Amino acid sequence: MPADTPDARTPRVAPLPEAEWDETLKAVAATTGPLNIFTTFGRHPDLFQSWIGFGSMLLMKGTLDGRVRELAILRTAHHRSCAYEWKHHHRLGLDAGLTEVEIAALRLDLADHSWDERDRAVLAAADELHARGTLSDAVWEALAARFGERELIELVFLVGHYHMVAFALNALRVQPEDD
């Protein structure tokens, strides 16, 4: 059953007004703009400060290249029916070298697109982590043939992190920004 997506729904937690931002939220917004994900999560300053460091590491300082990272995130956003995550990472996926055709194929069965072996392994991992909460030996071996130990660990954390973010975005009904 698909998630209850927030597109046409009222947020359960409204974004924090700029006058109430702490220094961490001000610094993040100065870099990214006042995105609803940050101004909503920023209502819990201690949690936000801890989370933003971890999320920033995965997004900007990780060992995975941008293409791999965005394949895993977009596949996770699809699995979680997270419109907010999909919208933001669609753009980031294009910036990382994914094509519109590839991004559209992330909503399809793996067999419905001619992914190369590396991409297929990443997507199979995202699929299995979503469905089973673990990886089969076959998928692990496919990943291990292409990635080092740190990348393997990071990929599992990345998919898990973006599941958690999708849960929060959907449950809090964080609205995508108007373009």
TrEMBL record:
Residues 45-128 form the Carboxymuconolactone decarboxylase-like domain. It comes from the Bacteria. InterPro entries: AhpD-like (IPR029032), CMD-like (IPR003779). Signal peptide: none annotated. SUPFAM superfamilies: AhpD-like. PANTHER family: 4-CARBOXYMUCONOLACTONE DECARBOXYLASE FAMILY PROTEIN (AFU_ORTHOLOGUE AFUA_6G11590), CARBOXYMUCONOLACTONE DECARBOXYLASE-LIKE DOMAIN-CONTAINING PROTEIN. This is Carboxymuconolactone decarboxylase family protein. It comes from Actinomadura yumaensis.
